[in-house]
Amino acid sequence: MARKKARETFIETELIFAYAMTNRLSDLEEFISGPNHAQIQQVGDRCFEKGMYDAAKLLYNNVSNFAKLAITLVHLGEYQGAVDAARKANSTRTWKEVCFACVDHNEFRLAQMCGLHIVVHADELEELINYYQNRGYFEELIQLLEAALGLERAHMGMFTELAILYSKYKPSKMREHLELFWSRVNIPKVLRAAEQAHLWAELVFLYDKYEEYDNAITAMMAHPTEAWRENHFKDVITKVANIELYYKAVQFYLDFKPMLLNDLLVVLSPRLDHTRTVTHFVKSNHLKLVKPYLRSVQNNNNKAINEALNNLLIEEEDFVGLRSSIDAFDNFDNIALAQRLEKHELIEFRRISAYLFKGNNRWKQAVELCKKDRLFRDAMQYAGESRSSEIAEELLEWFLDSDLFECFGACLYQCYDLLKPDVIMELAWRHNIMDFAMPFMIQVVRELSIKVDKLEQSENIRSSDERSDQTQPIVYEPQPMLMLTAGPGMMAPSYGAGYGGYAAGYGGYAGM
Fold it and tell me: What is 194-252 written as a DSSP string?
């Protein structure tokens, strides 16, 4: 009645509220659809506060307040409508309220639709994740984040949180996720999660991508069953900054993968301290295990490597390999090795001992060792190379004392330029073996004849030069001087006429 007399805002507003209180929704809808001056928004809020959601729904819908409408629909259980209203409202707060309501009522499909609009905001992501986790909906949360990865506005937090969720609830899927999206996750944060979940393989993978190679190697050695992979280990070990990890890796391979140790050493060889490495294996008594490594790095001519490999070859009685090693690489204690081999039970190693003595100019020891082992050829060769007449003569006398006349003859040939003819002739005469010395004597006579012939030739040349010098005068005679022809009127007086005049005068005197 009051409205018919005066169309005032207060009256119309209270009328609408009265319709709502008496649940006359059809009258309410008819009233607000027509012209009115009521404050519909205010009435809607009053109805919402009093729990009259049906009336509030009509009122909010009338004024297009989709944010409040969505919440009202949630209270009414109309979740699909709430999602549609939230989409029209396009408010993060509205999406959160609708999403949480859907989660509480197990409407996970609709909750996911809402969640896709929330996770793109990094500030809201943590609250959403906690809401799901606190209620135990881990699977649904993972599905939500998986669906969100394809969004255009996907950010690092989404990839990171999904990786953390995988580490907690689906560890089998974490490796695949990291291989695809490692560049888009917050690696330090995921590293902590992987370590807490004891996902060592994934931890090593992240350390590698984060360029923390030292930690990666340490993790692989600490958890070899899950984290160690041969090729990966060898790739990463070359990038570490702490050199001490090399030697820890060597010990790790000794303990767990001894058959692959040489492959590791070859990879590390450019940066290893070979002396320290060899010392380590000697102390642990595993030198034989790394023989291929010693072979591969012997080109460096390192003393420790050479001595270690030579010791191995002696133990294996490989005299051919030892001789090759000695000839190719000389950086080792020659005298110590020679003295060690001097008493070896195998003659070939004693022969190498004599060879080492020879190489260090210990000729007498080398020859004596060859004489002891009856290595006649080596003895003659070393005596000839020594350039010592004393050693050569002692060897000849030893051959004669041992009745080795053939060796005596051979030694004369080998040491020919070191021997004196008179000594050889005396020795041969005393032992009645002139036949063995005769080739030597013939050669000596031949050389003497050649020298005499050369001297005679030189003397003849000198004599002829002297004779030619004597026929040539010391001072050359002067040549006659040429006279100059006199010109006209410059004739010299004739001395003949004068003499004639004087002669005539003399005649006059005679006439007187």
Answer: HHHTT-HHHHHHHHHHTT-HHHHHHHHHHSHHHH--HHHHHHHHTT-S-THHHHHHHHH
